[in-house]
Amino acid sequence: MNLYATLILAFGMSMDAFAAAIGKGASLQRPGLREALRIGLIFGAIEALTPLIGWGVGIAASRYVMAWDHWVAFTLLLVLGGRMIVEGFRKKDEECEAPQRHGFWLLAMTAVATSLDAMAVGVGLAFLQVNIVTTALAIGASTLVMASTGILLGRFLGPVMGKWAEIFGGVVLIGIGTSILIEHLGIL
Q1: How far apart are CA 169 and CA 31, in angstroms?
Q2: Furthest C-alpha separation in the chain
Q3: At what angle do helices 104-125 and 164-185 cross, to 10 degrees?
Q4: In whole angstroms, how far apart are CA 45 and each of 40, 52, 63, 157?
Q5: Tens digit of pLDDT for each residue in 137-181?
Q6: Whole-angstrom Cα distance, residue 188 to residue 186?
Q7: Among residues 113, 153, 184, 186, which one has the fewest Cβ atoms lying within 10 Å of its Cβ?
Q8: How far apart are CA 49 and CA 115, in angstroms?
Q9: First to last CA, the chain
């Protein structure tokens, strides 16, 4: 793979994290650059690790990983998105104080769910002559930038949307999960 193909792959792998980060940023109380970078680092690190894991799984288990990754991603994103929607509806308008930051484990679960496609790509890359470390670092760096940008964009949506920001974020996560499932099942 040449440099351009690697960059395009990295950008494509970071788009799910970007969409999820917009929803996460919208549900926070005016996240700053430091929080955006923290979330971007979590998403980027996990997105960089998953192709390496997929590469390690390689040829031996590729059909098993690729057969179930979309169901795992869909289920995780459905649960996380559903949780956000329920929490959004539980809030009363007057208590619409958004959290300052999301917990690490919630972010890590969201990052894993949005990066399972990168694991499947890692399995596919095991069959090609590529430098998997360089490719994984490019995917992680792209995700860091895109997720941090998504958080900052979500910052402007949150105050406008109020309690609906968390509901919006949940709908976005469920939409990403559904999109992954539809794409892998070949429905559309």
Answers
A1: 15
A2: 57
A3: 20
A4: 8, 11, 25, 26
A5: 999 999 999 999 999 998 887 667 666 766 777 787 788 778 878
A6: 6
A7: 186
A8: 9
A9: 29
pTM of the predicted structure, to 2 decimals:
0.71
Spatial contact of 113 and 181, defined as CB atoms under 8 Å apart: no
Share of the chain above pLDDT 70, in %: 84
User: Please, are residues 133 and 22 in contact by the beta-carbon 8 Å criterion?
Assistant: no
Nearest to 76 by CA among 33, 47, 54, 106: 106
Whole-angstrom distance, CA of residue 159 vs CA of residue 157: 6
Alpha-carbon gap, residue 125 to 111, rounded angstroms: 21
Q: What are phi and psi of 110, to 5 degrees?
A: -65, -45
Cβ atoms of residues 19 and 150 within 8 Å: yes
Question: Given the structure tokens 């390690």, which residue do they identify?
Answer: 56
